[in-house]
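Acetyl-CoA carboxylase-D
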Amino acid sequence: QEGSLSLMQMAKISSALYNYQLDKKLFYVAILTDPTTGGVTASFAMLGDIIIAEPNATIAFAGKRVIEQTLNTTVPEGSQTSEYLFEKGLFDPIVP
C-alpha cells in the first residue's frame, strides 16, 4: 500500500500497540523475517520490547536504490542485513 491511507495505518497500529503495552502491562516480541521493509519497519516491527531477526534477512525502510538516489550517496553492501543491523545494536538476537 502507498499513500495517506497506509501512512495513517502505521500510526493506528503503533498507537494500538502502545496502548496494549501500557494497559495490559505485557511485553511485545517482534520477529523480523526476510524481507521486513517499508511501513512495517517504520512502525510496529521496531517497537518490540524484544526484537528478533532471522539470519540473512533484509531489514530496511527504503530500498538501496531509493536511498542512493534520494541522498546521492552509496549504500554500503550488506548494510540492510540482519547481521549488520545486529552489530549496530538495532535489535536483540538473530535466531534461525
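thats it. The first strand starts at residue 29 and ends at 32. The domain at 4-87 is CATH 3.90.226.10 (2-enoyl-CoA Hydratase; Chain A, domain 1). bye
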